[in-house]
Fold this sequence. Notes:
- By secondary structure, this protein is an alpha+beta fold.
- It contains 18 helices and 34 strands.
- Helix 4 (about 210-215) runs antiparallel to helix 16 (about 615-655).
Amino acid sequence: xxxxxxxxxxxxxxxxxxxxxxxxxxxxxxxxxxxxxxxxxxxxxxxxxxxxxxxxxxxxxxxxxxxxxxxxxxxxxxxxxxxxxxxxxxxxxxxxxxxxxxxxxxxxxxxxxxxxxxxxxxxxxxxxxxxxxxxxxxxxxxxxxxxxxxxxxxxxxxxxxxxxxxxxxxxxxxxxxxxxxxxxxxxxxxxxxxxxxxxxxxxxxxxxxxxxxxxxxxxxxxxxxxxxxxxxxxxxxxxxxxxxxxxxxxxxxxxxxxxxxxxxxxxxxxxxxxxxxxxxxxxxxxxxxxxxxxxxxxxxxxxxxxxxxxxxxxxxxxxxxxxxxxxxxxxxxxxxxxxxxxxxxxxxxxxxxxxxxxxxxxxxxxxxxxxxxxxxxxxxxxxxxxxxxxxxxxxxxxxxxxxxxxxxxxxxxxxxxxxxxxxxxxxxxxxxxxxxxxxxxxxxxxxxxxxxxxxxxxxxxxxxxxxxxxxxxxxxxxxxxxxxxxxxxxxxxxxxxxxxxxxxxxxxxxxxxxxxxxxxxxxxxxxxxxxxxxxxxxxxxxxxxxxxxxxxxxxxxxxxxxxxxxxxxxxxxxxxxxxxxxxxxxxxxxxxxxxxxxxxxxxxxxxxxxxxxxxxxxxxxxxxxxxxxxxxxxxxxxxxxxxxxxxxxxxxxxxxxxxxxxxxxxxxxxxxxxxxxxxxxxxxxxxxxxxxxxxxxxxxxxxxxxxxxxxxxxxxxxxxxxxxxxxxxxxxxxxxxxxxxxxxxxxxxxxxxxxxxxxxx
Length: 761
């Protein structure tokens, strides 16, 4: 049993009474000792007045003066509690009111001072719900009282006591190490840690993947019970199992993956296959076939518990950290030659690119060809003659990529959807992934064209669950706030771009579509696209169908295509399979013929509850208990992947110390200005103290720094040449200095022409 207070409390929804036995089941209490430990926690929460006990069951007590939030601390010791609601105020927490909570911890905060128009409300940590740092990176130091671990993250304002059990810490002094937290701080006692791995003499000496995995507590080894569970799985299919499914083995079936994921030593799963044909009416019939992971991973099993705990695969360059061991890949991945159990989503798409019908059904498939994106792109662009089996495959690819996908793309663009061109695409997911929108790689456009049709599958499932009033894990993306775009709009204005918004009330996907069209008019388009993507919120999971900004869906979308690499997709697969096998397909047993619960043709016919009230409530409670965890795990994975990119960029810039680059000023503050280096999409800071030629003043209204004597202005959008002065590898901070400005004369002219307005400030 391994759970946090936050996970436990997530099962208390809508003021309902919850039985202890229900919690034991959900929290996987498999022994009397586990049940006793759970009871101790419940008693403690009751004494803390977070739970009330009524008739042997528990109910959550809500207090208007207490909020749930995540701590975000600074290196200077002050912290803010960030609430989940986007409209809620951040709460200032003084160091004396932290109650031993650390940066990143999820906490309950009691409001002790209401906010004003100019000041944030103040609060005190009442309870730590979930620790964010079960392990951390630190440097070992020796003090009079013993060995200590000093965290590299300067937002963690403490030291850990280390026990030198095997007399090995002497050799680790001043080295970078990975420390597991054995005991969190209690009263005045320091936290206790244990060194699990010595990474190197410093951050630059350590492997970047080791740094990222240790920093974000990403585990690369699987426990014995998980490996033992895989050994019991048979890849052989019985005639009985095949007979209960639609047999698709005679259809031409292909998979398309990233080249590195097809390598034998890569740990990513091949979980999607495709078929394509024409119907008698001339419409396209696209089959998207998902590996049936739910058939092999029962809920509550060792494999399921591990996947649930980690939530999503993490992609760190050539290294994949999967949620299932690679040994499972060999048995269920959709590889050529073997029969595989799948869950198929058939989409009937008309000549306008609109899905007119869809059907979801269990199936059995056999993959004929497994191709990489690179191979597909070569086949489609080279014009080479192919023979044998590849001839039919090439015809399928031509129809899929050149005929069908553009129709679907046109529909997305028409409803306001947009796509951002970036030089690197790091997501291994075929849908919108962690970007939250369509990302186009100029060197590999096939990837985004395939994503166009994959997203249709998630949309179809969302429509199906909504129409039948079934519980589901929806994926949504909130619209960006105006503040996140304010600086970019100013930057575009300085570049003489028309970045007007359609509405002053809300941001629309159409606005982003318009911005991207404007960006294409200037040389800095790559930088502007990169900055625009950064303004998008990360996609989140919810139990209701909210709008998805990046995909321009206003009424619901689900993720379904990666059940082997995202736990939420696996849960959705389980729900769909249960509906197809156990759902009520007719109003009563007296009705002779039922409807097809896997098809949208049943939507207008079903006027009864498809699931029993008990099963509906059980699934809803399961989803409610998962959402917080899934969202947190997505955030960890996103941060880890960005961290690796940042380290690699810092490493590259370190090698360029002393070199000069051309860049664009993308942000101006009183302490200096930020420059985005065009070729590398690397951002650095030119600190105001490095500008030796004059005393520079900050003009907030014009977002620029202006020299008192020479009147030179450094403003948003200026192109400058900068020299790389120094690089902090671990913190990924790059210090730059002005080498020369390519438009000094223009800057002087602008400065003089706006002297009067600056004086007014």
